[in-house]
Amino acid sequence: MSDEEHHFESKADAGASKTFPQQAGTIRKNGYINIKNRPCKVVEVSTSKTGKHGHAKCNFVGIDIFTGKKLEDIVPSSHNCDVPHVTRTDYQLLDITEDGFVSLLTDNGDTKDDLKLPTDEVLNKQIKDGFAEGKDLIVSVMSAMGEEQINALKDIGPK
Question: Which parts pass through the membrane (predicted)?
Fold first, then answer.
């Protein structure tokens, strides 16, 4: 045994993948899929018949859950697609800073201060107006593939 101390610096995360594989033929409308390395909600799925050579193909149309852009992909139905792990968490809104960051209360009583107001104009205005009126607001934060964004608002009444 040596008396030396070894310090290892870990640059990796916990090993949890941002996506999981799922067979293309089993992905349905309103599910999620990774198109061009972006997490998307599937809005349309069509499957073509098998040709003389080859597989049936699934044509996916998805809306990026963070930017709202429409993306399309065609994958053989027997092949695997990447499906993002999408989670939705509700937080109570505590404060809005002048530079557009929000302060949110987590379930364990800590604050989360790393999110900006959403880019969606309507939702952004609803949050600012409700906060200015002194209402108790709950925001839903959707997270997938290392990104987070406020995507919904609930009014639970005046403070």
Answer: none
